[in-house]
Structure formats: structure tokens, C-alpha cells
Amino acid sequence: MLDPVAPDLGQVLAALGASLLRPVTPLPDRPVPVSGVLIHERRGGVPPGQDTILLAVGADPAEAKDLINAAVGYAALVVKSFGEPLTELSDAAQDAGVVLLAADEAVPWHHLEAMISSALAPAVRTPGAPAAGDLFALANAIGGMVGGATTIEDLNRRILAYSTLPGQPIDDGRRQGILGLQVPEGPVFYDDQYRELARTRRTCRFPSLPGGLPRLGVAVRAGSEMLGSIWVVDADDSLDETAEQALFDAAEIAALHLLAARTAVDVVRRRRADLLQRLLADPSSVTAVAPQLGLDPDAPVAVAAFTVADPEDVLAAHAATRLADLVSLHCEAHYGRHGCALIDGTVYALLPEGPAHRELVADIARRAHAALRMPVQAGLGSTVPGLRSIASSRADADLVLRTLAEQRTSPEPCQVAAIEEVWAGATLSVLAQLLAGDTSLPRRLGPAVRAHDVEHGTTYAPTILAYLDTNGDIAAASARLSVHPNTIRYRLSRAEEIFGFDLADPDERLVLWLRLRLGDQLGW
User: What is the DSSP string of 251-284?
Assistant: First the structure.
């Protein structure tokens, strides 16, 4: 039986992704049904619209302002800013009660119209039945057009569809992937190939791997968002530039199918992520948000934060998305649909009160590292008495991640800590930030000692710090630095002469220790 109910605007935006279409004005609290999309003709009028998204094609922000009144009654008005501020247009839209959306400037209008239509298509399909048949038909079409066995994958390297044309050779890796509907774990070369796809906007050619065949690959994108990839086996290394272009062109069509194939579960999860993101940004919204998340606003809760520890990696954004999926799945398995959100590369999860938070967070981090094959860090905030205090627990979790990053001296694959475990280092980290922003503090001793060491090849800074770290124990300091105690005494005496401080003064000892301990963070 077909489902005639039009999807909500929030569901459409969740299906398309924020990189393709983002709200400029706040979305209404009430559901906004969407039943179609209309391209505005600049020389024509705007017909009355009901539950329709209006695309302001060719209109700059100033011209789009004239469309605001005409767009009243439409589900939303879509514009492109082309680098211009949308403040005035946003204010006018809010005054008129029109939802204003901004589109990715790199996406052609006709492509955007097709994507929105594709995102609306699941509303008239059989509930719970994604367009899998369409994807398999597309894989066969690509296989015939390009000339090789084809697979279509999502971001998590799940195989969504594959071609079944006779006479096209496949290798063992492709065979295993089809059997498990998942790209099998492979050598580091696999990761290198996906990195190449993530950074390249063209068809890539990859040589054969041990036991495999050469391949062509291309990323499937909606605007700047990568949705997945298409791979074509080049069995006899005969696919030419024409095949490469055909595969590149097919990726645009595949984007529509991948958007349509996003299941209702994905939409619901994104909606919950948006609600949690709102709650984390504004705890005062708890009254409106908690019922939608199915949470008791007065129940104790803790925030856990997860991140990929190598943000410079080109696959970091992709890995963060996969990390969000992994964290969400594990939290749902333990607590039900409790809430998980990806915000600026960090995955946040709400954990209800319980004794096993630390073990769960560590288990998720280990599994995420094994799946992503990238370093993962996780921080657990303190348990707070209710959702209104959630900002405190999130701040704790963020502080744990920052402390782990600052203390990271080796490429450990997985680092996990609760705020109680790193409170000392976390306190120093916060103190460093506060002191760094205070321009009234004199900055004499720290820079002078370190600059002298650099210029003269001396080791006064580490000697003083070792002495202070050991509470003035000369023997312990000499053991830490592997030098004779008399050498420690001589260096300390000379340092007092050169820099003019007094180690007998407890205040000077404390300030000197702080400057040297926090010197790298403060620039002292």
C-alpha cells in the first residue's frame, strides 16, 4: 500500500544533507509538509504555492528579496548567496513567515531540483522499501555503458548494488564484497584509494592490488557532500578516457538514487541528531526538545564525546560521519534511541545514569578504531542531575578530549578518559587558556629562560622544571635528568644569577613552575 503522506521539510533537509541545502531562517516548530519543487522563471510571475519548495534561479540576494511576498504559502524559498551576506534577505523572510534556504553554489539548479524531487520520491513508495531495484538497474546500466563489472557503495563502504551482466570478470575482493554486501577489510592501499576519491573531482584509475584487478573509481557527491562511490573493474586494462567520462557522468545520476535510497531510519536518526544538537547548544530548549527525544528532563545524564584524532587526514570528515554511525548504533543497542550528534567533527552521545559508562565508552572507541583504522579519542563528562545541566557535562567531555590531545606524545590508536581521571591536566589546560588571554600578566621569566637555552645551548628550563616537579628534591631531579646532583645545584645557582629569581620564595617558585609547565600552551 502506498503512503500518500507528504514528507516534512525537516525530513527533506535531513535526507539531502546540510552541505547541499541549509536553513538560513529557523525552521518552524510545526511540521511543514512538502509535496513538490518549482523553478522560478525570472521573467514570469510566481503562481500561488502550497507545500512547494520554490527555487530562486538566477536571482541574487537583492532580486530574491522581491520574491519574499510572492513566496508566502510556499514550503520554502531557496537562494544562492555567491558570497554575499543574506542578513537582509533573512530578516525579510522571517518578517513574512517564509522559510529561507541557501543552496550549495557549486550545484546546478537543475541538479538541485532533481535531488529534491528524488528526496521526495520515497514518500510515495511502499513504506520501508528503498529504491534498491533502481540502484541495481543503475549498476547494470553503468556496467554496460562503461564496460566493466560495477559496484555502488555508500560512505561506510557498504555495497548497495552491483551489476550482474554476463561476461564481465570480477576478482575475489569483489566476490567477497557481494557475498557480505560490505567491502572486505583489506590492506592500507584500500584506504589510500578512498582518500584519493575523497580529494578528487574526477574519475580515478587504480592499478591492480595483490590478487585483484585494476579499477576505475569515482566519488558520488551531492554538492560538496560525498554520498558514496562507484567502482568499475577494468579486467584487461582497456577502459579508456571515454569510459572515464561515462563513469563521471554516471556519478551525477547515482547521487539522485543514493539520496532516494536513504532509509526512513536514517531520516529519523538525523532528526534526533538535530534535536540533540539543539539541546547541546541551548539547554534552555529542554522543555521543547526532551519530549521529542523521549527523554526525562530531570533524569541524571552524562555526555560522552568521540573524535578522530587525526583531523589533518583527508578522510577525517568521512571518518567522523562513520564514527557518528558507530556511536549511534552502540548507544541505541544499550539505551534505545537516546541521542547522538556530530558537531564540528566531534560525536556527542547522551548516556543515562549507570555504572558502566566508562567501560561502554572505551568499548565503543576500541570498536571504532578497529572499523575506521584511524586513531580515536573519547572523553566522558561528569554525570549531571538533568538535561538542564547538560552544558556542564559537555564542557567536561570537550575538556577531556583537549587534555588527551595536549598530552598525546605517541600515536596511540585509542585514548579514553573520564573527567575524573584527567582533572589535574584538565585544570592546567583551562588555566593555560585563561592566562593566555590575560595581556596584563608580566611575561618575563618563561620566555627569557627558554630563549637563553635556545641561544646558548643550555638546559636551564628543563633543570628548573625537574627541580620544581620533584618539590625541590635534588636527588630526584638529578635522577630524572640523569645528571650528577652537583650539576643540578650549579645550574640552579647560575639560573638565579642570570634571570634574577629566588627559588626560596614560594610565590616565585609557583609562578615559575606555571610558566615553564604551561609555556608551550601559553607561548611564554
Answer: HHHHHHHHHHT--HHHHHHHHHHHHHHHHHH-GG
